[in-house]
Design goal:
The chain is mostly helical and about 450 residues long. The chain has a two-stranded antiparallel sheet. The chain is globular and about 60 Å long. It comes from Pseudomonas berkeleyensis.
Amino acid sequence: MQAAKPGRARYSILLVLFLATTITFADRSSMSIAGSALQEGLGIDALTLGYIFSAFGWAYVLGQIPGGWLFDRFGTKPVYILALFAWSLLTLLQGFVDLLPVAWAITTMFLLRLAVGFAAAPCFPGNARIIASWFPTAERATATAISSSAQYAATALFAPLMGWVVYAFGWQQVFIVLGCMGLALSLVWLREMHSPREHPRLGEAERTFIESGGGLIDLETQATSKAGPQWRHLRLLLGQRTLLGIYFGQYCNNAITYFFLTWFPVYLVQARGMSIIGAGFAASVPAIAGCVGGLLGGLLSDGLLRRGYSLTLARKLPVVVGLLLSGSLVLCIYAESDAAVVALMALAFFGKGLGSMGWTLVADTSPRQILGLSAGLFNTFGNLAAISTPIVIGYLVSRTGSFDWALAYVAANALLAVVSFLFIVGRIHRIELDEQSGAEPGAPRSASGSVS
C-alpha cells in the first residue's frame, strides 16, 4: 500500500514567517531611504546619522539572549506576537518626532530606534525555532532561504515605494505606513501561527514526514514543560568551536547587510549624485539579486544533501562562493558610471544572499534543548555589526569625505567570513546536550534520520 503523501501545512507557516520578516526589514531599509531627508530635516551631520542608524542595533543585540531564552521558556507564539505588536507600534510613533523641538526630536528618534531594536530582537531566533520544528533537515536550508529572502524582498519592494513616499509626503510618513502594516500583520500571526502538535490543518502523514526527517516537532512542548535554559548553557555554547565560527561568520556577513540597510542609499545620493527616488529604485536592484541568491543558496544546499553529499559540503559550498562574490563591491571604488556601481552591488548582494546560510547552520548544529538560546547568541554576535558598521562607515566618511574606505571595510568583512567558515567552523554536526546533567555535550550524531 502506497504511503500517504505529506500535506502542505508547513508552507503556510513559512508564508507567515516570510511576511513577518519582510515587515521587519522594511523598517530597517526604509530608515536608510529616509536617511538623507531626515538628516536634512533635523540638521545633523553624517556621524550623528550613523549613530541614529546604529541605535536599532544596540538594543537589538542586547535583546537577543533574553529573547532566545523567552522562546525556550514560554514558546514561540506568545513571545513573537508580543514582539511584533510592540515594534510595529514603536515604528508608528517615529512618524511624529518632528512635532518636537529639534534637539528633542533627535533624542526621541534615537530612543525610539533603541526601543524598536529591543522589541524586534526575538524575531529571528523565533524564526530559527519555527523552521527547526516545522521542516525536516533536507528542506531546512530552502525554508530558511525563503524566510531570509524576505530581507531582500523588503528592500526591493519598499525601497522604491518608500522613496516615493519620502518625495511626495515627507520622511515621517514612512514610519506611519510601516507601523500600520505591522499592526495588521499581528492579527494574521495570532490566527495562523501554531506548533506542529497543535496546528488544526496538519495531517498525520505530514507530521510523520517532518518528524522522521529530523524536524524537532516537540520544541514547543519542551518549552512549556521546563524552567528554561540555565546560564551555564551560555558557557557551553561559547566553548564550542563550531558554533563560535558560525557566530563570528555571521558578524562579518551582517556587516555587508547593514551597509546595504543603512548607508547604501545615502552613498548613492551623496557620492553618486542620485535623487532620493533614483536611489530607491537603484537600491532595489541589488535587493532583487540578493533575493535570487538567497533562494538559490538554499536550493543548492538542500539539493547537494539529497544527492548524498555531506552536510558539511552542502552547507559550506554556497557560503564560501557567495561571500567571495560579495567582496566584489570594493570594485565600486573604481567604477565611473552609476550603472556599473549598481551592477557591482547587485553581484555583491547576490553573493551575500547565496552565502547567507547562518540560520540554517544554527538549526543544524545547536543543541535542541537550548536552540532558542543558541539562536539568540548567534544573532547577538551577528548584530554587533548593526552597531559597528553604521558608526565605522559614518566615521570613515566624515574623516575622509569619501566612501572608498567604507567600501573596502565592507569587502574585508566578506573575506573574514570566508576564513571563519572554512577554518574555524569545521564539520557540521548537531551538538548534543547531556539530558541528565545538561553540562557537557555528548558525541555528535548523524545528520540523517531523526537527528540533524
